[in-house]
């Protein structure tokens, strides 16, 4: 097996990040590279290059609608990064479990929010603790599927949906692409047909769907979609 070239990097440029992910994908080691991004921050959460350091405004807007009214409401944040979205859900009254496959990411969260009510844990989306199955009223997914290749994307989507309790909601934030475009891009944005599999395969109901361009220069097209489990 070819030796990978990124094991001791202190910082990553965007191009180096894409090349690293490509090499890991080629060797079918699709989950093994995440921790290096967080390690390269050297304990400083603000140095994680993909972290926005604020909760998604679309998540906040949805939370302000107070759609989930039940007491003891539970939320799960997938690939929680440095914790902004998890803390927002906690602020809105959810009992939050936030997980990441990166041990370093979880350490950064705990150091950043030492008095947090969020339960930050190391976990694998493809092999999460069995007690999480169908346990959450809200699942928040931001930019996880798009960094996975091929069938891992479908497997991730199905695993995310399996976390939902009855009448639970999954909120999906991701880069977007037109059908047939950007097939070799890293990260690979999601097409509408990929997101529609939450409906056609996982049998969720689409509650809202927003296509928008972010504020980067040049802007990057995104989707923010909400699906509900009714069965």
UniProtKB/TrEMBL annotation:
The record's annotation in Pfam families points to: Methyltransf_25
State any GO BP term from the record: methylation
Cite the InterPro entries for this sequence.
Methyltransf_25, SAM-dependent_MTases_sf
UniProt cross-references to SUPFAM superfamilies, sorted A to Z: S-adenosyl-L-methionine-dependent methyltransferases
Record-linked Gene3D superfamilies: Vaccinia Virus protein VP39 (3.40.50.150)
- Tell me if ATP-binding is a UniProt keyword of this record: no
GO MF annotations in UniProt: thiopurine S-methyltransferase activity
Q: Which UniProt keywords apply?
A: Methyltransferase, Transferase
Occurrences of domain Methyltransferase (ranges):
78-168
* Protein name listed in UniProt: Class I SAM-dependent methyltransferase
Native organism taxonomy: Bacteria, Pseudomonadati, Campylobacterota, Epsilonproteobacteria, Campylobacterales
């Amino acid at each position: 097996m070819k030796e990978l070239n990124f094991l001791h990097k202190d910082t990553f440029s965007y191009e180096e990040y894409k090349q690293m992910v490509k090499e890991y994908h080629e060797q079918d080691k699709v989950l093994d590279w995440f921790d290096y991004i967080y390690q390269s921050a050297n304990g400083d959460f603000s140095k994680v290059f993909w972290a926005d350091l604020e909760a998604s405004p679309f998540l906040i807007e949805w939370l302000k609608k107070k759609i989930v009214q039940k007491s003891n409401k539970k939320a799960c944040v997938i690939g929680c990064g440095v914790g902004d979205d998890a803390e927002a859900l906690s602020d809105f009254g959810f009992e939050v479990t936030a997980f990441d496959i990166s041990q370093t990411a979880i350490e950064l969260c705990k150091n950043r929010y030492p008095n947090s009510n969020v339960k930050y844990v190391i976990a694998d989306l493809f092999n999460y603790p069995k007690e999480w199955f169908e346990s959450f009223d809200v699942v928040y997914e931001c930019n996880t599927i798009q960094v996975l290749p091929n069938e891992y994307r479908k497997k991730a989507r199905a695993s995310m949906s399996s976390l939902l309790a009855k009448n639970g909601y999954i909120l999906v934030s991701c880069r977007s692409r037109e059908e047939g475009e950007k097939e070799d891009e890293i990260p690979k944005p999601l097409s509408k047909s990929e997101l529609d599999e939450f409906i056609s395969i996982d049998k969720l109901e689409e509650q809202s769907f927003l296509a928008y361009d972010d504020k980067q220069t040049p802007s990057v097209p995104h989707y923010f979609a909400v699906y509900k489990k009714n069965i």
